[in-house]
Amino acid sequence: MQITFSAAALPKTGAIVIPIFEDGGKPKAYEELDKATDGALERAVKTSAFKAKKGKILEIAAPAGVGASRIVLIGAGPSKGFDRLAAEALGGAAAGHLLKGRDKSATFALNGLTVKKLANDEFAARIATGAKMKSYRFDKYRTKEDKDDKPVLAKITVQTSASKAKELFAVYDAVNDGVFLTRDLVSEPANILYPESFAKRCQELSKLGVKVKVLGEAEMKKLGMGSLLGVGQGSVRETKLVAMEWTGGKKGEAPVAFVGKGVTFDTGGISLKPAPNMDEMKWDMGGAGAVTGAMAAIAGRKAKANVIGVVALVENMPDGAAQRPGDVVTSMSGQTIEVLNTDAEGRLALADALWWAQETYKPKAVIDLATLTGAIIIALAHEFAGCFTTDDKLAKQLDAAGETSGDKIWRMPLTKAHDEMIKSDIADMQNIGGKGGGSSSAAAFLGRFIQDGVSWAHLDIAGMAWNPKDNATCPKGASGFGVRLLDEYVRVNWEN
Ligand code: BES
Ligand code: MN
Ligand code: ZN
């Protein structure tokens, strides 16, 4: 979808979108159009139940005197507290409606509409961002879709006199590109996206100036990554470890590292998962998807920070060569792990990825993202990712980034008691805890692979990588969760 900004008069074609606040705020175009149509807008509003509630729409089809195809009045809710996320939701709701129609173009009339919390430039750019986010579609495998079901909206013009909106949008759109990349990766089925093909997608980031390194099994074996390699042992696909380096900050300054779980399919291994909904485990690479998308966003907008993205790409399959429950593996850190359940594989993959990232890049902070436990969905549903850290400052920073970006997180407990849950009888640790607190014992496991002095947080995004239903800025399916969160965290804490 193409998005442009223009201060010019309203066009004579396409749809015209007019946001209206519950407390009366309207763009100038409302009155203009009402006059031109002999009061058609006022009449329509008066005789309908339209009260400008958030996201509510009143559509008026091509009244005489207007060149446009239709006028779409959209409720913006109360103007008080209307912020960045509200503007994005407004743009998304409008786009969602337009995409179901047959207009090829639409104009959002914003001239004369102002809100307290947002400058006019920001207001316009955020509405455009929301519209773009909502326009995402993964339809590459639909060869027979009815052409009436395929959206035709190709262009949105944002009518605004705010001169910096375009500039701002260019930056936000780089982040959108990252979100779309993550959604693409997460949507792909596992016969198409497996460790090697995922690594190839990472390599494409080199056109944004990202340096990409790919390690294969031979190299990982030399490095002693028995934990990550054990997970892929039953798969015919070669396990890969990818590092993406963005050096937009000061030369030699220690970076922040993002580490993602990239299990391209999780059958559970020999501890096989039940059949119902196993297909969902194609998105068990959501953490790696988010890290890759975040790297694209950060490089795409040329962030002034040094950021490393590391993804552990592996397929968890049952097979004659697969690892068995009870096997003991030795991780790159030297610590041994008793694998009591081969379905607790994400932490095994991350153990070596985390260690390698710290050994290689000496980061000041490490944040890992993983669709790690079903238990986090029990606790937080599809509302928040779980945030596990013993670093209060980092927790605050991530909370704040979640609030502004809309990728919401909720801090969960991580204590000594959780660490004690993974004591093993024969090795340094086991890969599952006891009954209860499964997300926290998983986090405690990861904590064993964090070096002294490194500030670290683990985000369990199992409930967030996939949207079970549409929302204001995202269709049902892959959400791209984490990209905006990490981008915002970098912008606020690592730049300038
Ligand atoms: N990938 C799953 C976690 C998951 C489950 C993500 C459902 C999204 C939806 C993970 O590898 C897993 O299987 N975790 C186990 C851990 C258990 C064996 C300790 C789980 O949560 O059941
Ligand atoms: Mn699993
Ligand atoms: Zn998994």
Structure description:
Helix 12 (392-405) links the parallel strand 14 (385-388) and strand 15 (409-411). The longest helix is centred in the middle third of the chain and has 23 residues, at 165-187. It is built from 15 helices and 19 strands. It is of the alpha/beta class and 496 residues long. The protein folds into two domains: 2-161, Leucine Aminopeptidase, subunit E, domain 1 (3-Layer(aba) Sandwich), CATH 3.40.220.10; 174-493, 3-Layer(aba) Sandwich (Aminopeptidase). The strands form four sheets. Strands 7-8-10-9-13-17-14-15 form an eight-stranded mixed sheet, sandwiched between helices. Strands 1-6-5-2-4-3 form a six-stranded mixed sheet, sandwiched between helices. Residues 266, 284, 341, 343-346, 371-375, 432, 438, 462 line the site of ligand BES.
Sequence-ordered SSE layout with sheet pairings:
Blueprint: E1 2-6, E2 15-20, H1 28-36, H2 40-47, E3 57-61, E4 70-75, H3 84-100, E5 105-109, H4 120-134, E6 155-159, H5 165-187, H6 195-203, E7 211-215, H7 217-223, H8 226-232, E8 240-247, E9 256-266, H9 286-300, E10 306-316, E11 327-330, E12 336-339, H10 346-361, E13 365-370, H11 375-380, E14 385-388, H12 392-405, E15 409-411, H13 416-420, E16 429-430, H14 438-447, E17 455-460, E18 466-467, E19 477-478, H15 483-493
Parallel strand pairs: 1-6, 2-4, 2-5, 5-6, 9-10, 9-13, 12-16, 13-17, 14-15
Antiparallel strand pairs: 3-4, 7-8, 8-10, 11-12, 14-17, 18-19
Helix pairs in contact: 3-4, 4-5, 5-9, 8-10, 9-15, 10-14, 12-15
This protein binds ligand BES, manganese (II) ion (MN) and zinc ion.
